[in-house]
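Justification of computing resources. Each target in the renewal requires a structure prediction run like the one illustrated here; the chain below, 185 residues long, is used simply to show the kind of job we budget for.
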Amino acid sequence: MILPVYLYGHPVLRQEAKDVPANYPGLEKLIADMFETMYHAEGIGLAAPQIGLSIRLLVLDGDPMSREYPECKGFKRVMINPVIEEYSDRETATEEGCLSLPGIHEKVMRPDSIRIKYADENMVERKERIGGFAARIVQHEYEHLDGLIFIDGISAIRRQLNKKKLTNIIKGQTNCSYKTKASGK
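Resulting structure tokens:
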């Protein structure tokens, strides 16, 4: 089932998400619904807060980016209760967008690689080192679990330049090809 994507300004996007218990009801269906929602919106990552659930769950599929970023080939993951254990010292600025901020794209500085531990869709613990654009996807989505949004990492001047777009998103005045839920402010 395709779920609405919660837009910038909705309080759930600023909450720190809670861990997902092993016996979370309907987890398999939720994961399937999140992938379906992400694909319908032509996204490459989706965090549970973006569909209104303040839980530590990510779905990711970097494969659409594999032509430009070969490390994304076959990079499809479910990450439950992820914890980034290490960030590389080297950082790169690359343009990002977000399904919760339609029409806004900005360069964000992020570490080039991370080491992360998480449970997969079967609640099996995994640890891996992820680099390049795949690491960027994970970091972007991971921030949603801590109540952060990628524009928090851009300069005040760049945020100011996007102020009108942000105000329109809060008011629900955006054109999206996918279902959304505005904050209603």
